[in-house]
Write a structure and sequence with these properties.
This protein is mostly helical. It is 52% helix and 9% strand. The longest helix is centred in the C-terminal third of the chain and has 23 residues, at 154-176.
Length: 246
């Protein structure tokens, strides 16, 4: 059986990729995920197996033949979307007040054994080895400098530690709870942080996004307890309903 001719470059390839990307956009596939889905679409269309990536060494011949096509699809997305393909591994961000200034704290992706400390002294980037990785909570704060960290008071360190504990619980709760509204709430939280840190003191917009996030957390919490939530923006009513749900 003759292998199908699939365009790897030129106008035919461009037409194929535009059609596929338009379909993926209409299906609601986010940009960062489209290269993977595009490979799948081409694979299904031409009934061939296409490798996602990897070394050509020891790759089966039937996959090796389509490695250049996989690379071409990946390069097409890099050329067209650039940095929008990058995925932030951070589960979430929060804002805290240190010495009357606002700072953004990034919640790290925690995997394996991690020993968490709150120190004025910056730790060097840990190497992979035996034992837990040491994470200095102070270094999860964006734009925190060594000089500023060295001047932090005991009260400031306590504030940072408490803020980190709250942020980690909240970020992973929003990420792990399977409900559409929880996913939307994550976007509201991100908006609240962005507006709070924006130039021009856009505090009202940040407050509104925070209220929206709270509403979208309360409603699925009620639903996950087996009850129906009211279609209302009133947080007091939703909180009372959640209390009834236990």
């Amino acid at each position: 059986m003759t292998a199908p001719t699939i365009p790897h470059s030129g106008p035919a390839f461009e037409t194929m990729m535009l059609e596929i990307d338009t379909k993926l956009a209409a299906d609601g596939i986010d940009i960062a995920s489209r290269p993977f889905h595009a490979v799948r679409e081409v694979s299904l269309k031409y009934q061939v197996s296409i490798p996602l990536a990897g070394s050509a060494i020891n790759m089966p011949p039937e996959l090796l033949a389509y490695l250049p096509l996989s690379d071409a699809i990946d390069q097409w997305y890099r050329d067209n979307f650039g940095d929008r393909l990058k995925v932030d591994p951070c589960p979430g961000r929060s804002v805290l007040l240190i010495d009357k200034d606002l700072y953004v704290m990034r919640v790290p992706r925690l995997m394996g054994s991690v020993h968490i400390v709150t120190s004025r002294e910056f730790l060097e980037t840990p190497e992979i080895g035996r034992g837990p990785v040491i994470l200095n909570v102070v270094q999860t704060i964006e734009a925190m400098t060594r000089a500023k960290a060295a001047r932090l008071t005991d009260d400031a360190l306590s504030t940072i530690r408490d803020a980190f504990e709250r942020a980690v619980r909240a970020a992973y709760f929003l990420e792990d709870t399977q409900h559409e509204l929880m996913f939307i709430a994550r976007g509201d939280v991100a908006t609240a942080v962005d507006k709070l840190m924006a130039q021009g003191a856009r505090y009202g917009e940040s407050k509104w996004a925070s209220l929206q996030a709270a509403e979208k957390v309360l409603k699925p919490a009620i639903a996950l307890h087996g009850r129906s939530f009211k279609y209302t923006h009133g947080l007091k009513l939703l909180a009372a309903e959640l209390k009834k749900a236990g």
